[in-house]
């Protein structure tokens, strides 16, 4: 394979023959932009069959797994409905302006994240597009593993149909509940009726047990004087069963990152199927993926509506819904709440990855991209809120069911559920499966839930692969290579590199990539986008706005000019700085081997993680220096000829 700088050096667009003779990017910005504005640009570039395909692709990309498991967890942690205030503020001042900008760049210039810089006359900045693409590629490697987990759950659900018992249920033959530890008062600790068959403890003694502030005690918990440690083996332990299935049957989790172990056959099969499926979706580019989104983008909404109808009819559903809708405004005084809201909007809309630019480059040039951005952004946020009205009633039901199993879980307090894990994978692969296993028609709801997750995730996955393929095509890395062949190469390489995530230590590598791979790059990319549009040359924004007015008939108002020039750069720069404020993002320094802890993370994982996030930035710097040297060489040659 050829290095990035080689590809960029030999692919200057034919309609800018004099660009290489310029001594600086700034000297020709206005001329180049206006030249591009007069033509169609991107001649011969594939297009979506209609506007509906583009809109569904954007919705499918923006609305993903984070809407279902990330947003509800943030609302759960940061004040319920009060979290909506910083969330929608972040949408208005950061998410929406960046979303509009990336759609506009892609649609107006008819190029992917690499080509837009050439069209803007900023060839030195093509490294920004390369940085975004490397980040996108890294995310696509581990994101498909989530889909493999989901497919695995979906498959075992179907395979368990003859038995009538979901495989993560405590009713599975051969499963025995582990010993449970509690701290009753010394005065009742030896009562014969303290523990009862089935329920595990006598409900009438609930007030006589000591419990931690949140969660359930262990044999190492330190109870106050007057309480003594007692243990028993309950007949029902839905949380333990679900955690055991996730950790041992799905992940085969090793003791730590330094113990990779072997590949898991079942998960390997699911992983292989997912990459084949992604290839079949993208192998013809937008002409094939544009048809798939009719199902993958719409099916999750049908499933969410079905879940909502079922959720609000469950026992204790209103307790969960009230927990979500009742605002705790005291949380808003915590700066962390606002930081989380901003980063959630940033990642949820998917800005900075290059995928939005790639999608828009395949749209009709006269489409109202500003209106499209408004619609998709609002759909994305509305989906998050609606998902909250689905998730919280189910959590209320889960608290009600767990209330009879452990005295430290109260049905009217969802805070107690923190002990089973409600963030990210914990909500999707532990909390929801527990609730589903105790609902009527559990197999039906299990199938609907994991099919919904699959559709939500695969949209985002093939969007990232499309983005990578777009850059490869625009950079002319493999001239003459057909779309199917290019898709096969990208998917094949991704498949091999991602095998580490389905080993016994794969969950630790998954976490490392999730925390570190793009922690800096996305902020860097979006900062460069707004900076070079608004600050590098006065004419760049003026010409961009003129082009938008010419092709779409829409005038970019003062709002976007202020956001792009002042507000967005300041916020992004703040996020960029805060990204370096925490050295150990995964908690490696306090980690303990599994199963005593969540898994051992060696200290070298911290340094490896930060190094993992640096190649995109180094790629940008290298390409910038190569282009700068080329411009200087040309300038010297021009001066020599004149002399």
Automatic annotation (TrEMBL):
One of its GO terms (biological process) is amino acid transport. It is found in: Membrane. The chain crosses the membrane at residues 54-72, 84-106, 127-145, 267-286, 298-325, 345-364, 376-399, 443-464, 485-509, 515-537, 558-580, 604-626. It comes from the Eukaryota. Keywords: Membrane, Symport, Transmembrane, Transmembrane helix, Transport. One of its GO terms (cellular component) is plasma membrane. Pfam families: SNF. The keyword Transmembrane helix applies. It is a multi-pass membrane protein. The keyword Nucleotide-binding does not apply. GO terms for molecular function: symporter activity. PANTHER family: BLOATED TUBULES, ISOFORM B-RELATED (PTHR11616:SF240), SODIUM/CHLORIDE DEPENDENT TRANSPORTER (PTHR11616). Belongs to the sodium:neurotransmitter symporter (SNF) (TC 2.A.22) family. This is Transporter. It comes from Pyrodinium bahamense.
